[in-house]
Amino acid sequence: MTRRVRRATVISIADIAPHLRRLVVGSDEFYDFPADQLGAYVKVLLPHYGKDEVEIDLKATNPAPKRSYTIRAIDNINHTITLDFVVNQHKGIATNWAKQAKPGDKLAIAGPGPKKLTDFSQSQYLMIADLTSVNAINGYLQQLPASAAVDVIIHVADSQDIITLDTIEAHTKHRIKWLVTTKPQIALVEQVTDYLNQYTDTPLIFMGLEGSLVRTIQSIAKEQFAVPSAKIVCSAYWKRGIDADGKPAP
Question: What family is this protein classified in (predicted)?
Fold first, then answer.
């Protein structure tokens, strides 16, 4: 990813769902932040515990804790970006920071990094997400052509976590299904299989999910429905029981 690091501060905070906290962060250093990066991600650099300032040297002896977050919105006039943090589901460096964050708190933003999905030329898409990747879906829905048939499945554990996406109303072939389940290993896999059974064209599949779900759905798509690897774009946004540093999750 682009290694430029920009200092920033928290501008505003809103709890938009039981498990989602939205932070708008701003900086004069965002003056040239590229506006075409919806769906892309940034690395959020946080202060060390008990500190206010952020270490912005990525090669420092004791570098800042950092986590990846997908961009929800970019405001090039006010020099802000909007990020959503999953909270109240698990403990971790970024989750704990976001729960306690307040306007004026300092952080830094590295990136943006590349979008996972770059092929916007297909006739059929199947996009599968959870709360960690919902903003990738939000960004891509604004870029996919109106002529494409797009099915989106977003699984959440609580119906109150269903949020509004920035869809384009004229794109009537774009369909969004929120799947409320506490057993995505069963319900989500069944839903994906049902969709794949209905298609006459091979879809391009985008997945941003927990690692074991990615592997399961990828295997089904390849082995049962002959979807070629070139038409599967997948990313394990998180792994059950493991934090972003590869250590056991708290």
Answer: Belongs to the SIP oxidoreductase family.
